[in-house]
Amino acid sequence: MVRTWEQAWHDALYGDVGFYRRPEGPAGHFATSAQGPAADVLADALLELARRESLTTIVDVACGRGELLGSLAAQADSAMRLVGVDVVDRPIDLPERVEWVRSPGGTDLPDLGSPERALVLAHEWLDVVPCPVAQADRHGVLRTVLVDEDGTESLGEPLATEDLRWAQSHWPGPHACGDRVEVGRPRDAAFATLVARTGSGLVVAVDYGHTVAARPRAGTLTGFADGSACLPVPDGSCDVTAHVAMDTLGADGLHTQQDLLRGLGVDGTRPPVALARRDPAGYLAALAAASHASALTGPGAGDFLWALRRVG
C-alpha cells in the first residue's frame, strides 16, 4: 500500500504492532544519552537545572522504558515529583515513586494535568514525530514523497499549501532535482502542544537537529535496528527518524548540549594521575565519571541541540 511518508511513518512506530510498542523497547536497538551510565550524568545535570529554576516536578516525555527516570529517582530527594510518559504500560521495574502516563504516540499527547513548576523534558522525541517528506522534481517543485511497506519511494502531488508555506519560510530554496525537505510543521505543533499542557516551568526539547543556515540538502530520514543504521522501512521492524528543525519550534533559547551541560557542571576532565596513587578506587570512579561526561559533551552527543521554552 502506497502512502505518504508521514502516514506510513506513524503506523510503523505507533501502530498496534509499531516499533515503539515492541517488548524489548528502544534500548534493545540503540543507545541514547538517557540510558546506561550516561543517564546518571544526565540526571544529575537535569536536577541541577531544576534546582536553578526552582522546579519541583520532572516530566520525561517519550521516556522509553523509564531508564532516565530510574537514575533521577536514585538521585532526587523525595520532594521531587517524577512522571514518565510513553506509549506502553508502566514498566514493572520502574521505581515506585515514578508516576506514569500512557501516550497515544506521535503528535498526540495525553493530558499531563498542567504540571506547575515543572521541567518537562522531550529527549529525542521530536525526531520520531512523523512529518511530511518532500523531494524536488526536475523542475524544482517540492512534491510529497510516497512510500510502500518495503521502503520503495515515489513522488506524489506538490506539497500542500500549509507544508509548502512552512518549507518556503524555514527550508528555503532554490531546490535542485532530488533535494529533500522534512517539513517540520507537525513537530512545531507538537512542541507547542507540550508547552500548552504545561502549567508553569521549563519545557525542553533535546535532539539531533539543524538550523536554517545549515539545512541538509539530502534530508536525514533514516532507520535504526539492532544497533545499526539501516534503510528506513515503514513496517515496524526498525526505528524511523529524521533530524529536527530546532530553530522553528518557537523556543526562548537554543544551545548545544556541550555548552548547556558544561554550564550545569558536567565536566569531562580526567582526574589527576596522582589521585591513582593516593586513592586507586577513587581515581577509577572519577575516571569513569569523566568518561561518561565526555560521552555527553564530546563530538556527536555534544552536538545535540537543546530548545528551552519558559512557561508561565
Automatic annotation (TrEMBL):
Gene Ontology MF term list: methyltransferase activity
Source organism (scientific name): Janibacter limosus
Superkingdom classification of source: Bacteria
Presence of the UniProt keyword Transferase in the record: yes
Alphabetical list of InterPro entries matching this protein: NDUFAF7, NDUFAF7_sf, SAM-dependent_MTases_sf
Protein name: SAM-dependent methyltransferase
UniProt entry tagged with the keyword Zinc-finger: no
Coiled coil ranges: none
Gene Ontology biological process: methylation
Keywords: Methyltransferase, Transferase
Pfam family name, one: Methyltransf_28
